[in-house]
Amino acid sequence: MALSSTVRTLAIELSDVDRGTYESLELKLAQHPSENAAWLVTRVLAYALEYGDGMAFSSGLSNTDQPPVWQHDLTGQLQAWIDVGTPSAPRLHKARKAVDRVAVYCHKRPAPWLRTLAGAAVHRAETIDLYAFDPATIGAIADGLDRRMRWQLTRTEGTIYLDTDHESYTLTVERLAWPGE
Questions:
Q1: Which of 30, 84, 90, 171 has a CA positioned 20 to 30 A from the CA of residue 67?
Q2: Which domains does the chain have, with CATH numbers?
Q3: On the CB side of 157, how many CA atoms lie within 13 Å of its CA?
């Protein structure tokens, strides 16, 4: 018997001062049995930090041809591919050829992943936005996940302030350079 997904409901009050984005987001997330909590937290943070019209979660882990988060325009044209974790060079190559905007949010130590990308043939690799969160902070947020949650997420001057039902966190998003740049 296959394990079923855990459904999580998350209300986010987003105040992204850096981008001038202020929204109340009501998210219903299906956490796949193979999706760890840190990956889920990173997926939600990536969604919120990239939020704009047409932003949505894809079918996720069950479809490896899609990013965890993507953005389409009103015609259905793919506008942004937002990946999470440590995607392979061939995956990033495919994504960058398919769409102009590609971003990756890493929740692990990025150095080993960046070494795997060094020297890889990736279409316009220098235009891919690479970001990393502190793994310990992501782990602490993941430890506090519930099925129903309320978050207040504020980004100002590059710093993220996250208030959850249980705790307050301060995160920075480290901008990474493509290896070899």
A1: 171
A2: 6-176 (3.10.640.10)
A3: 1
